[in-house]
Design goal:
By secondary structure, this protein is of the alpha/beta class. It has 9 helices and 10 strands. A hairpin with a 2-residue loop joins β7 and β8. The relative contact order is 0.15. This is N-acetylmuramoyl-L-alanine amidase.
Amino acid sequence: MSLGRRLSTPAVILAIVLSVILAGLLVWRSARDTDAGGAPGAPAASRAPSSGSSGEPRESGKPDGEGNPLDGTVVVLDPGHNPDNREHTREIARRVDAGTHRKECDTTGTATDSGYAEASFTLDVARRARTLLEGLGAEVEFTHDGDRPYGPCVDERARAGNEAGADAVVSVHADGSGGGDRGFHVILPARVTEGSADTRRITGPSRRLGEHLVRAFAGATGSSPADYLGGSVAETGLTVRDDLGGLNLSRVPKVFLECGNMRDPREARRLSDPEWRQRAARGIAEGVEAFLLDGRDGARSGAGDGA
């Protein structure tokens, strides 16, 4: 055998081996592409997942199409009094319609012994509650936001909730009882049909709003219902009044919340504490949320029963 023939045999073998390897690679790649493609027309696995028609990523933790719990609701917060009322005593002394009678436009409110005014407290708590409620999707309106020289008067405050078509109105206050009197309470509208007052349609939903507020406020703040009003208030946290124009003139569910007693030293320290006021705001927001969601669930249940 010549030297040239001996050299040609390995070359032939190498060519055969390379051909087999190349064929194997082609078969493997074809199988991989078929697996990645899936059914005909399906997108390749390496493509980025869809982010919705807008092209923007969906908000994390929120199923597609699900909004905030209070979307479509209107809440009116009524910060009691006005920090500048003390500079306008003549204006706030004029008498206005309170439904069953006429009474002063507004008052200055109370204050702690150190001078922290109820009007400053109510504005701060209401603003904090507004932030929380808006975060839940509610549209929140104020009767005033410290942006007017005095007032508004009690009839204007009621009208603000009515004209907004509010689903719930909470008037935020703090009490001015004697030292040693402690706790919070919610004031409900009495059933009144006299003069320009007609609360027949709102007493039921206002009571439900009040009950939700009592539970949420107690849970958020650790406060107990007022121990100085007698009756069942210490157990229920609820009382009923027929002399408040803000309730008598309301046509939408409304309550007053007395967050505590500014004239008691221990309570005054709590009311003056920003961290406690944040908890109070959370109690208001959670109580309103529970009331509004309860109303929605009831409406759905009623619709189902009638179907």
